[in-house]
Amino acid sequence: MGEAEIVDDTLLIRSHIITYGESADEEVTGRIRAEIETLWNAPQAHIWMRRRHYALRFEITAESKKDISELEVLQNVDPRNNYFRIEDFVHGDISFVDGIGCNTGYFKLDNLYEGSTTAAHEYGHTLGLAHPAHLDLRGEGVPGIMYPRGTLVDPVFQYDPARPPGPNGGTMHPMHRRVLPADIALLHLERLPFRDNRAIIGEFTNIYHWSHKQGPLKRR
Description:
Elements: E1 2-7, E2 10-20, H1 26-41, E3 46-49, E4 52-64, H2 70-74, E5 81-87, E6 96-97, E7 104-108, H3 118-126, H4 181-186, E8 198-201
Parallel strand pairs: 2-4, 2-5, 5-7
Antiparallel strand pairs: 1-2, 1-8, 3-4, 6-7
Helix pairs in contact: 1-3
């Protein structure tokens, strides 16, 4: 989720990442922030709307609030705020967000290593992007940021380039995902309902996640 603002010749997308949970700290939070901002700005995209071109820029800020209260998340009214619990254990063993176009989720610490692209991928979900339906990219080059684990790709983008396509090393290593111009186009930013040069991307889910170590998956 984020807030879009037109400033002169630039379309700014501002999002604030707030992490909490046992494994949340300033280091991993800073890594998440830098990954999202770097990858989403990489295309140096321009958006055509209102009969002119605007340079697109993502401005991502972040902070770690390890012991944030459930009430603070539930009562959030700032469209820039995205809340992610970070733990070393997650049901399903993979990071997730609470829907397409949301502002909350749960990250598995092991998914957040340097260059993993997990945070940038999940951020794409918060902006409204789903996984592509076609998951065989062989012959199509670099995988876009929204392709999930298990996607078939050219050998150079596999976990193990020497393996045949398929399980056991023959699928996409997420480190090879990149934000491509096609990913930016799918956001359809030109359709946003601007008011006073501002618009909201995504919706408030404001779900506080309890630690999965406490027992069965608990959502409110």
